[in-house]
């Protein structure tokens, strides 16, 4: 083997290494997390700042990398063909095609891309000098390529991609949330599930309205202005709540909101005599909101309002329920147990759970990791009634998705208690005695 052949082999090897560098750089650049890059740039990392600027024109950077990669691949293949033709004659073309295909695929494509995918964020920071040099040398060629591509798309009637499209959509963010903590075991898995629920709750605020979280009128503990002061004081002391609507005419007239703290102050001012209490005098004005009001807007109002409770009205002005700051916070953090009751009923053997009919489907899914439909009704009792197209009798059994449900108790026309379990845990005879 003469000296010129050795030089040519060295050039081919160098071109293969350059091809591998281009391939790994492309994979690291396209797979790097935009959130990671932004955070590192804000922390003062100059490489991340450069990477962020390059990411604003990702199509231009990718085009430059592909131009460079194809240039070195084509040159290496041409040199290998010339060398093997000199060694083996006309058959050298076939040998060059086979050998270069193997080398390019294994060592210049699969291997560097696999290494880059193992840690794309760190790899992207390491290849910033390569990206900067590539853009200086091949940026004009990339602009030319992109111009030809856009012109071709226009001729074909297709719309060219927007260079300034958002870096991540809500669906992609939700998908990333679902991957958070996957594969953890024990306490780490429980913590990850709680964190996923909180992150989903933050995103859900934009899509929810007051009606989705309000406490229905039938569950409100209110004070009637016409009741004796002693009776109202007894109701305040017996209730676990801190705020109470004060109303007249059986709830048709909303007079204000009374805080338990103000009741105690008024009682002290009255010398401890309940008969002298005047709750209307200590009631604060009640905020009124429409049930279709966006939840995020109501949260902003509560942040500035002295009273963290609002009366919810329908489009006709009739009282539908109440909403509090805690109701909105629970969308993010989950049920806040502060009223002397647990969110769920007793967990029996085999995965059966007894639930109150007024529990929200969203809260049940969150606490148990279930996937009951949330778009048909707000509460589990309402979901059963919607599926039955009416109020089911006690003992009614039905299946919703992969869950079996049974009505255990009714109170008037309201479903008061149900038993639910996943179908794969349902035994013969279903749940046995109710």
UniProtKB/TrEMBL annotation:
The keyword Signal does not apply. Residues 1-195 form the CNNM transmembrane domain. InterPro entries: CBS_dom (IPR000644), CBS_dom_sf (IPR046342), CNNM (IPR002550), FAD-bd_PCMH-like_sf (IPR036318), FAD-bd_PCMH_sub2 (IPR016169), Ion_transp-like_CBS (IPR044751), Transptr-assoc_dom (IPR005170). Residues 214-279, 282-339 form the CBS domain. The chain crosses the membrane at residues 6-32, 93-111. Signal peptide: none annotated. It is found in: Cell membrane. It is a multi-pass membrane protein. Keywords: CBS domain, Cell membrane, Membrane, Repeat, Transmembrane, Transmembrane helix. PROSITE patterns: CBS (PS51371), CNNM (PS51846). SUPFAM superfamilies: CBS-domain pair (SSF54631), FAD-binding/transporter-associated domain-like (SSF56176). It comes from the Bacteria. The keyword Lipoprotein does not apply. Belongs to the UPF0053 family. Hemolysin C subfamily. This is DUF21 domain-containing protein. It comes from Falsiroseomonas selenitidurans. The lineage of its organism: Bacteria, Pseudomonadati, Pseudomonadota, Alphaproteobacteria, Acetobacterales.
